[in-house]
Amino acid sequence: MGVLKGVSAFVCVAAFLVAKIDSRPAANELPHIIFIVADDLGWADVEWRDPMMHTPTLNHMALNGVILNSSYVQPLCSPSRSAFMSGYFPFHTGLQHLVILPAQKVGLPANLTTLPDELKKRGYATHAVGKWHLGFCNWKYTPTFRGFDSFMGYYNAAEDYYTHVVGKGLDFRKNKDVDREDSGIYSTYLYTERTKSIVSAHNKSQPLFLYLPFQSVHEPLEVPSWYEDMYCKNTKNGTRKTKCGMVAILDEAIGNITQTLEAEGYMDNALVIFTTDNGGPVWAAGYNYPLRGAKSTMWEGGTRGTGFVYSKNLLTNRAGTVYDGMMHAVDWLPTIMSLVGGDTPPGIDGVSQWDSILTGAPSPRTQFVYNMDSLPLFHAAIRDGDWKLIQGSPGGYNGWYPIPGDDDAADDGTLMNEAVNQADIDMYQLYNIKDDPTEHNDVKDKFPDVLATMKARMEQWRQGMVPANFPPFSSGSNPANYDGVYSPGWCDV
Fold first, then answer.
1. Which of 77, 137, 244, 491 is catalytic?
2. Can you give the pTM of this predicted structure?
3. Catalytic residue (one of 54, 127, 133, 328)
4. Catalytic site residue 77?
5. Is residue 97 annotated as a catalytic residue, yes or no?
6. Closest Cα partner for 275 from 31, 48, 82, 41?
7. Which of 17, 39, 133, 293 has the highest CB neighbour count under 10 A?
8. Which pairing describes strands 208-213 and 32-38: parallel, antiparallel, or unpaired?
9. For the Sulfatase N-terminal domain, which residue ranges apply (predicted)?
10. 327-374, pLDDT tens digit by residue?
C-alpha cells in the first residue's frame, strides 16, 4: 500500500511538472527582445535630464515606459558587457581590471552560459550588431560562438567611426568574414541598416532577440556635421556640441529601427531594454550631472547607468513610471529569463527584477559590488541597502560637474576637466546614497558601527574574488599578421 501511495504521489508530482512546463509561453507567444547598449552615455547625456540634448525617440520610450533610476553598471566597457552576457559580477570571472585590450589573450570565460545561449533554448533567433569587446584571440570568444546566429560589428573597444580602423588594423566583421566594403560609412548608419534588414527578413513566427551594442557615443568624437548644426545649435562648448550630435544620431538610429519593428508588426509584443555600459567620460564631453565622478570610477557618476524599459503592451500598468529599485547589470539575464519562461544558469550573481519592474514592488536586490580589484593595489566599492563603502581609490575623476548649459564652459571642454580632479583619498569612505546621492558627505566618523559592519561585508565579498585575468600583450595579435585585420586565431586559452 505504501509503495502504491508512493507511486501515486510520484505520478501527481510528474503531472504537475509537465503542466508547469506546458504552461510556459509557446514560441509564437514569446515577446521579442531588443537589448540596446549605448557606449559611454552619461547620466545627463539624454534630453530628459539635459534639455540641450536631442533624444526624442529615447524620451518617448523612457517617459512612456519605466525609467530605471537605480540601475548600476560597471565603471568600464568589457566588465559591463560580461555582466550583461553572463549574469556574473566581473570580480567573479576575472574581468574586473580595466578592459580587454587588443593584444591580450583573454575573453569572457568560455565555460559560462550566455544570455543568447539561454534564449536559443527557448527558440529565439539571436543577432548581435555593434561592439563586442569580450575577447577575440580565439574564435570561441567571438559572438557567433557565444550564442548569436549572426554578428556585424567589431571586436575591440574603440575605432574610427568611418574607416573602422583601430591603431593600424581594420576591425569590422560580418559574421566571421572581414568587411572591407563598408569603409567610409559612419558605423551608426551601417548598424541601423543591418538591423532593419534582419527584422525584415525574419520569420515572424519565431521570437527575436536583437542585441544592439552601438559604437555611439564612445570616443573618438566624430559625427556628420549636420547633426551638430541641426540639433545642437545652442551648445557652445565645442566637444559637448559634437557629443550632442553623436547622441542625436544614436537617437535617430533607434527611431529608425523601432519604426521598422513597428511596420513589420513586432512592437505589439516586444520589450525594449535601453542601458549605458558605464558613466560618461569627462575627458570626452560625457556628462553625469549632478552625480559625482566619471567613467572608470566607482563613484555614482561612473556606475549609475542611464536606462529604461519600454513596451507597448507588456508594461501597460507601469507606463510613465520610475523604478527606484536597486538593480545591477548582472540582473538582466535572469530578468529576461523570467519574462520568457526560461532557465537561469545556477550560481550566477544576478536576480530577476521582472516582477518588481512589472508591479513596482521592492527590488529583490539589497546588495551589490561596484567593483573589486587588486591591481595594482586592492580597491573596491560595495553597496548594502542605502550604504556605500569605498576602500582605496575610487578612480581618477573625483569631482562634480557644472550645471548643464553652463555657457562659461570653454570650447575645448576644459571647464569640465578642471571640475573633476583627483582628490586625496582616505582608505575608507562611507556614504548614505539615499540621503546623499551626489556623495558630498563622507560619514564614516559619524557612523562607526555602520563602518564596521560594511568593512566586514567587504571582507566577505573579497573572499570570493578571483584574480584579475589581465595578461601581458602578445605580438600574435598584430594585424600585420592577418593582412591588416584584427583576427582570431593567435591564442589557445
1. 77
2. 0.94
3. 133
4. yes
5. no
6. 41
7. 293
8. parallel
9. 31-341
10. 999 999 999 999 999 999 999 999 999 999 999 999 999 999 999 999
